[in-house]
Every structure is written in C-alpha cells, then in structure tokens.
Specification:
337 residues; alpha/beta; Rossmann fold; Alpha-Beta Plaits; four-stranded antiparallel beta sheet; 11 helices
Length: 337
C-alpha cells in the first residue's frame, strides 16, 4: 500500500521540472558619467526577457540612446556590467556583439551600393562566412527581394528602413535593437513596419525598441520601460500598466442640468461639466469608489447609477474613457521631475 507521503513523491518524479528561461539581456548597476560631469545613466538595473518586444520610452535626453549604445558596445560604461545572451559585453565582446543587431534611424553611407552588396557586407563584418541563402531569406522576409540589385540611393524612405533591418539581421542576431524604427514615416508604412517587427519576434528574435510614438508601444510592446533623467522609473507588463495606472472616466449626459452635486452623492467625488449638463465619475479597476467595498468595477458603477436614480437624477446617454498610454507616460514623467 502506498503511503500518503510516497504518492506525491512518485508523482513529482514523473512530472518534468519546469525550466526557468534566463533573460537574454541583463543590465546591472549601470552608470555613465561623461567627462563634462553629466550623469547620463544612474544605477540602471534591467532584464529583457527572451522573445519579447520591449519598448523603452523616455523624453529627449532621458538616456535611451546612451543605454542602447552601451549594450551594443558603442559606448563604454562608467560602472556596472551588461550580459547579452549570457556573454559580458566587455570581457566577451565578440561573442556578445555577434548576438546583437542594431537598427539606427538612418543610413549614413553606402548610397551607391546595391541592397544585396550592403547586406552581405554587413554579415562579413561579424566574421560570418558568406551565406547567400540566409541573405535571400532575410530580403524576402522584408519584401526586399525584388530590390536586391537596386542601389540604395534609388530606394524610398520605407525601403531604406527595411534595408537597415536587413543589415542588422545579416549575421543572425538573437537580440535586435530598433532606434526610432518608424520616425518620420507615414501611418501606412508605420503599420507595415509593425508587422515586420512582429514577424521577427515570432521567429524568435528579441526586440528592444525606442520610440517617440506612444501609439507604437501601445500597439506592439509586451512590456514597457520608462526612463527619465538617466533612471529607470518603471518596468511593467503593458496590460498591467494600463490596468494599474490607466484611470477610467464615466461621463453621464443628463436630461436636466444640475447646479450642484447632491450631498448624498459626495462619496463618489463627481464632477459637473458642460454647464451642469454632464456628470463625470473617475474610477479605476482596483478602487472604484467609497461605495464599493469589494473594489469591483461593475458593481461600483451599478451602485452609482442606483444612487443617481434614488436622487431623481436622470441621464440620456453615457460613455466611458480609459487613459491612454501616452497620458500615463506624461503623468509618470511629470511626477519624477
């Protein structure tokens, strides 16, 4: 007969152990101080998960470019260390750098080279042997195959952006940094680029992007980091960030204007707007109002509507609005000034 202790032990033996996937980028206590005394980065700790799209947001001068430049081996840190796919970017520079692809904002040279030549040359820079089949796959995945013999100077702005990505992917990196990937392009092209980035993520490439377009981070990112004055002030799952910080607003369009909010409704902290024709109720998913002991969003609104009815206040329409990521970002940065 199996004892009560032996049964779970045997069951545990049969079940495979869950392996914890280590982060693909680890930044520890990273600081950068320039000769002028300017502290560009201050004790940055950050982990990027393998296979995610991570958006790094911050105002101009916040430290985004410095952080990326250090991880990519273009700028030396003053303190701290960085691991790329397990390799130290200083002591194991070649191994670390071979795992990283960087897509800058603009092409700076090679205007008279063909697409095929410039992408193939980029692969050679990392000591990789020629691999025409890989270059072909990259160009086809970025809809560049038909342009492979075109000189870069003849390409449109959108196609040049794709060439930049192709160059960064030429040596088969596991980590891809995109610095403002859609800056200055039209909305249609921006959405096309989003699809390209998603396909790269689905193929197993970890994507880290900096962007000024909050819509871009809201649309694409799995997680979001906010940097300001050289410090990481927040790293959060996008959905969780929206849930925690995305305050919601219920606007009721009243049948008859009010001069003041009745005293019996004071606990809801309602606001009058549009000359007394609108009643605004602010709430969030965690704490709906003083009248909602359970903290449930739906029951809190139901309690408000019930109390409005009891107070004889009728409305003809209502709508809700949730704070956008842009509003959350602006409020976070403002709080840290």
């Amino acid at each position: 007969m199996t004892s009560n202790i032996e049964a779970p032990l045997r069951r545990a033996e049969r079940e495979p152990e869950r392996t914890v996937v280590p982060p693909v980028v680890v930044v520890e206590n990273l600081s950068k101080t320039y000769a002028s005394g300017f502290h560009a980065l201050k004790n940055i700790d950050l982990e990027i998960r393998r296979g995610e799209i991570f958006a790094l947001l911050g105002p101009n001068g916040a430290g985004k470019t410095t952080l990326i430049s250090i991880i990519c081996g273009l700028v030396n840190a003053s303190e701290g260390r960085v691991l790329a796919d397990g390799f130290d970017i200083v002591s194991d520079y070649r191994e670390a750098r071979s795992r990283i692809g960087l897509v800058p904002q603009e092409l700076t040279n090679e205007a008279f080279e063909t697409v095929w030549a410039t992408v193939s040359f980029s692969r050679g820079l990392f000591g990789k042997p020629p691999d025409p089949e890989h270059i072909e796959r990259v160009l086809k995945s970025l809809t560049l195959w038909d342009k492979r013999n075109n000189k870069l100077i003849t390409l449109s702005g959108g196609m040049k952006r794709r060439v930049l990505i192709a160059k960064a992917l030429s040596h088969e990196p596991k980590i891809l940094f995109l610095d403002e990937p859609t800056a200055g392009v039209d909305v249609e092209l921006r959405r096309e680029m989003w699809e390209v980035v998603r396909r790269l993520r689905d193929s197993g490439v970890t994507i880290i992007l900096t962007t000024h377009y909050i819509e871009e981070a809201e649309e694409m990112a799995d997680r979001i980091g906010v940097i300001n004055h050289g410090e990481i002030i927040l790293v959060e799952e996008k959905r969780e960030l929206m849930r925690k910080l995305g305050s919601k607003q219920l606007t009721l369009h009243l049948r008859h204007p009010l001069e003041t909010v009745p005293e019996r409704l004071a606990g809801y902290r309602l606001e009058l707007a549009a000359g007394g024709k609108e009643l605004i109720y602010h709430y969030d998913a965690n704490l709906v109002g003083d009248h909602d002991e359970g903290g449930d969003e739906a029951s809190g609104i139901a309690a408000l509507l019930s109390d409005l009815d009891a107070a004889g206040i009728r409305f003809k329409d209502l709508h809700t609005k949730q704070s956008s990521l842009e509003e959350i970002f602006v409020s976070l940065v403002r709080e840290r000034r």
